[in-house]
Every structure is written in C-alpha cells, then in structure tokens.
Design brief:
This protein folds into two domains: about 40 residues, no CATH class; about 100 residues, 3-Layer(aba) Sandwich (Trna Endonuclease, Chain: A, domain 1). Helix content is about 35%, strand content about 25%.
C-alpha cells in the first residue's frame, strides 16, 4: 500500500501522510480577528486615527490638552487578553484619558473592541475611557 492509498483511507490525516502542510481552518471569530489585525502595522496610524490625531493637536495648541501619546499603553485584561487604546491623552487638569478611535461601530469585529473597552473601564478606574467616531465632520464621544 502506497502513501496515496493510505491518504484515501484516512482523509483526515492525508496532509500528514503526504507530507503536506495542513490547510488552516479558521472559525468565524478567527477570520474576523485576522481581518482586524491586518488593518495596520503596530505604531502606524490609519486614516481615521491620523485625522483624530490632528484634532488632538489642535486641542494641544489651545492648551486643553497637556500631552498626547499614540499606542503608549497596553492593559492586561485577562490571560492572553489585552486592550491597547489608540491614544493616551493627559488633559490640562492632569486627568488621564484613554481614547479609542473608530470609523464606525458597525463592523462585526468592532464588538470585540467595545467589550474590551468596557472591561478595561471596570478594571482600571484610574483612567477615563472614551471612544470617538467621526460623524459628519465632527467627533462624537462615547464615555465608558
């Protein structure tokens, strides 16, 4: 019996028998997560974040904000679960806010982000958490 006949008898093990790389099977959640993580490189802003950064720069110039840092903090929520807010913002009164910037909350993978923000807000009360969505030229704020 050769390897091809063996592979026909045991189709689940065909990749191993024929010495091929197995096909990766993704759950729906893994597919969504893969799409979300492919959006940009670490430390590189997407267009929405860049527009929001410009908005923050204007507030910095006017004195409303003391400091802006992009992707400066990583919060551990649970084992192998982290939340990386887009911006750490220190207001003029030294209040620390963590800002998440979204094009919209409509995409399926955004639910994961919303849950992480809520959990982070509960676990880290020393920070104020807010999400911002650009709506008709202005930024809409949602506090958590």
């Amino acid at each position: 019996m050769n390897e091809h006949e063996l592979a026909r008898l045991f189709p689940e093990q065909a990749d191993v028998i024929l010495n091929r790389k197995p096909k990766r099977k993704f759950s729906n959640h893994a597919k969504v997560k893969a799409i979300a993580t492919q959006r940009k490189k670490l430390g590189e802003m997407n267009k929405t974040e860049a527009a929001y950064y410009q908005h923050l720069q204007n507030k910095l110039q006017s004195g409303e904000i003391h400091l802006i840092k992009y992707e400066a903090i990583k919060l551990r929520l649970a084992d192998k679960t982290y939340y990386n807010p887009d911006f750490l913002v220190v207001l003029a009164d030294m209040t620390i806010e963590l800002h998440e910037v979204k094009g919209s909350w409509k995409a399926p993978h955004q639910e994961d982000a919303r849950v992480k923000i809520k959990v982070a807000a509960e676990q880290f009360p020393e920070f104020q958490f807010a999400a911002f969505v650009k709506d008709k030229g202005s930024w809409t704020r949602e506090d958590f």
